[in-house]
Structures are given as C-alpha cells and as structure tokens.
Amino acid sequence: MTKENILELIQTKNAKIAIGVILFLGFTFLILKKDPKPVEISIVKQDVYRQILSVQGKTKVKELYTAYSPVNGVMRRVELHAGDKVSRGMTLLTIDWDIVKTVKASANGQILKVYRESAGPVIMGERILDYGDVSKIDVSAFVLSEDMPDLDKKDKVLITGFGEHTLEGQVSIIEPSAITKISSLGVEEQRVPIFIEFNPPPGIGDGYELECKIILFEKPNAIVIPTSALFREDGKWAVFTVEKKKAKLRFVEVEHQSEGISMIKSGLSVGESVILYPGDTVENGTKVMPE
Predict the structure, then answer these.
(1) Domain YknX-like C-terminal permuted SH3-like, which positions (predicted)?
(2) pTM value?
(3) Which residues 6+ apart lie within 8 Å of 111 measured at CB?
(4) Which domains, from first to last, does the chain contain?
(5) How many angstroms separate the CA atoms of 201 and 165, rounded?
(6) What pLDDT shows up at residue 18?
C-alpha cells in the first residue's frame, strides 16, 4: 500500500471514527488507571518472642539508715553534706542536753540527704539525715495485683533509663501484701511491692527512676510480626500480605502480644511481607508499592 493510499484511508469517515474511539479509550484508561498505593511493610521473621511486663521502678539503698535526735535539746550545726562518706562509729549529730548526746553512724556509707543542718532546738525523734551504702542498691517497683499470676522470683529484667546501656537484673523479692496506690489518672489500684537486684553502675544513686521490663517468659524460634500489621476482620485477626504487588487479605491466629510484637500461631510463613498500618484505604486486591 502506497503512502497516498494510506492517507486516503485515514481521511475516510470510518477511519476517523475508529481513530477517535481508540484515542478515547486510551485517554479513559489513563484517567481511570490507579497508581499503586505506597505502603510500609515488614518481613515475617523467626525470632525470640518475649512476653514483657513494663513497670516504673526507683533505685533504693538496700540498708537505709536515718539519724534522729535522741532527746529534746539543742543540736549543734551538722557539718556533714549529701555525698560525704561516713564510717561506722563516726559522730553524725551532737545535741546539748543535760549532758552532751551524740549520734554515731551504725555502718559505712555516704550521706544521702540532710534534712536539717542548722543549729538550734530539736525535739526527740526529729529526722536529721539519711545515710547508706550506695554500692548496694536494688530497684523498687509496684506491680498491679492482676499481673501477679505471671510473675515469679528470678524473672529476668531489662533496665533502662540510666545512660544508653541496658542493665540486666532479676526479681529478688515479691512482698506478700499488696498496697493501695493512686494511678496518674486518679484511680485507686492494688499494687504489690517487688524488688529487683542488679549490678549498679558507677554514678547511680538512691531514688533514680528507671524503666523495668520484666520478661515473664521467652519462646525461641517463634513467628513474629509487628502488632501494627494486625486488624480485626469479621471478628478475627487479619493482615494484608503483599502478593504480586497487590494486598492480599490473610486471616491469622495470634498466640501472644507484647511490646508491639505479636507471636503468630498460624496463617503466616517466614519471609512473607505484611503491610503495616493498613488503614481504610487498603483493601483486598489493592495495588501497593512498598516504600
């Protein structure tokens, strides 16, 4: 077919209609074509799963000593300051009474806090100062009584909040009686005092606030995913996997959840990709593009 024949064919009415239809369909396809939705994904992996109970704790000198005024009298000025070292038998307080009364240290340690240093009248039992050995420190914490069935002595504890390193300890004491405490929301709670023993690093002192993660149990070689991949569908747990660049709805069975990690009993395999925070814009079959 010559060039002239092709030009004549294009100029016919039917050819013009056919070209118009093709262009219309092409533009319509481009307009209706949806770009893949960018999504954040995570790879299903096999790892150690840890069931963690998080509580706030405070360091506490194991053996705290307090010096009180033993009589009503006039106390001489206390020349000791927080941080000063004391040794057993050292004079801490001197009080003029009918005779001079002194209070001596019962153990070696450091002055932790001086409540009063000025000279002047004192009454019997007035608290003057605290001291103790800061190299022997535990962490004191309070656990909700409803969480106690899962807690045991010697449970491993990961401690953070003092420098960049994670310290290790273990539950050493679980007191048999709960006490009533008020939560930050003003709600009464029954909490059980526990103590965590650890190797205190240099520089730490009494009353330091720490974050304690008590490991209630561990399971090696577990199938784990971020909990942010899970959502509820028809009353069941589900995720979106990524298959052939599309979101695929998958029902799963969750065995445990803790600290943003879920242990999956069935429904996923190691190496698969799951979509995090799928939201309402991702549906089964949605084209997706991992970010």
Answers:
(1) 222-288
(2) 0.75
(3) 80, 81, 82, 83, 84, 85, 86, 129, 130, 131
(4) 37-49+220-290 (2.40.420.20), 52-59+136-219 (2.40.30.170), 63-132 (2.40.50.100)
(5) 10
(6) 74
